[in-house]
UniProtKB/TrEMBL annotation:
Residues of the DEAD-box RNA helicase Q domain: 1-29
Domain (Helicase ATP-binding) ranges: 32-206
Reactions catalysed: ATP + H2O = ADP + phosphate + H(+)
Record key words, sorted: ATP-binding, Cytoplasm, Helicase, Hydrolase, Nucleotide-binding
Name of the protein in its database record: DEAD-box ATP-dependent RNA helicase RhpA
Annotated source species: Algibacter pectinivorans
Amino acid sequence: MSFQSLGLSEALLKAISKKGYTTPSPIQQKAIPPVLEGHDVLASAQTGTGKTAGFTLPLLHILSENPKEKYRPIRALILTPTRELAAQVYANVREYSEFLNLRSAVIFGGVNQKPQAATIRQGVDVLVATPGRLLDLQSQGIISLKRVEIFVLDEADRMLDMGFLRDIEKVIKSMPEKRQNLMFSATFSKDIKKLAHGILNHPVQVEATPENTTVEAISQKVYRVAKGLKTGLIIKLISDGNWKQVLVFNRTKHGANKLCEKMIKSGITAAAIHGNKSQGARTKALAGFKSGRVRVLVATDIAARGLDIPLLPHVINFELPNISEDYVHRIGRTGRAGAKGEAISLVSADETSFLRDIEKLIDMKLPVQIVEGFEPDPNASTQPIKQGQGRQNRKPRNSNSGGSNKNSGRSNKSRSGNSARRK
C-alpha cells in the first residue's frame, strides 16, 4: 500500500515524499481512511509506530479541504500529556503542512506564555497543547475552543496516569458537541475504554499491534542484583559494553539525579530529565543525548513519555515500574523501525512481584543472569517497595484525581497530579 492509495491531497503527498517516506506504517494504513471518512477513531499504538502521522495527515487534509483564511479560529486541537511530546507532534504538523495554507502553534508550560499568546491571537488552525497551559490561557480569554472541528487526545493512557482526567473533562466541555474525535493510546485498559465511551461517538477501533505486546526485535533480560549494588552493576555494564547511547529509567526524580551524579563521577557522560528540570535543561539534555555528547540519559517515566530517539540501542530499567504496562512503554523506546534493541532490567528482591506481573502481561518468562560480585542478597525481603517512594504508589485514577488543589497539606496523589500539570 502507498500513501497515494489512502486518498491524501497532493500537497500532503509532496510533504511526505520530502520526508523520505514511501509506505505507510500499519497504524497509518488502518487509521487514516476512517479519519478521512469523518469517523471517530479509537486507536491503540505504541510510540514509534508512526501514530502521529496517523492522525496528523488526515486532520490536515480535512482542514485544507475547507480553508478559513480570513479569520482563523482553532479548528483542530491536539492534546498531549508532556511538553516533549507536544513539541514533537507540533514538529510533525509543521512538516506535513509545509505546502498547505494552514497555521499551527504549540503551547506548554515551563516557558514564557507571552509569545504563545501572541501567536494564537494572530489566528491558528491547528493547536497542539498540554492541558495545564491550555486551561491557563483559556481562563485568561486568550484561547477559545468554540470552533473546534477535530479533537485529538494523544497518549490517552498517560494522560490518565498523570491525573489529567478532570482537565480533559474541562477541555471537552468548552468545545462544540458536534466534532470529530480521535483518541490514541498505547493500551486499551478499562479506564481508557471508559474515557473513550464518554468522548467518542460510535468509534472505529484500530490496533497496530496486539494489545500490550512487546516488540519482537527487542532482546529482553533480567539481572538479579542486591539493591545496594545496582549502581555499580549498571556502571559496569555500560563501561564493559562500551555502550554509547543508553536510556535509563528511574522511579523518582531524586533517584535519577543521584544515579546521574554517580555515573559522571565514574567517567560516563550522563544527564537526567524529570519534572523538576526546566524546559531548557530538558531540551539541552535530550539534544546532547541525540548528538552523542551524552552517553546516558536517566529519566522518570513521565519525563520520557513522547521522547523521539531514533535507533536507540539500549534501555535499562534501573528500577522496575509497578504498573506493568509502563514496562512495555519503556522498552518500546528501543527496537524501532526494524532495528535491533536491548532492554535490561536490574531487579532486586523487593521488585519480585513487579517482575512476576510484567511477565504475566507480556506472556513470557524473561531470562535471568547474575554477575559475579553483584549477586542478589539471599536474605533480602521480597515484600514490594514501600509506598510513598515515587510512582510506585500510583493507583488507577478516578474522576477526582489530578485536580489543582493548591493547599500545602495535600496528599501524595494530589502532589503527583499537580506536578503533572507543570509538565
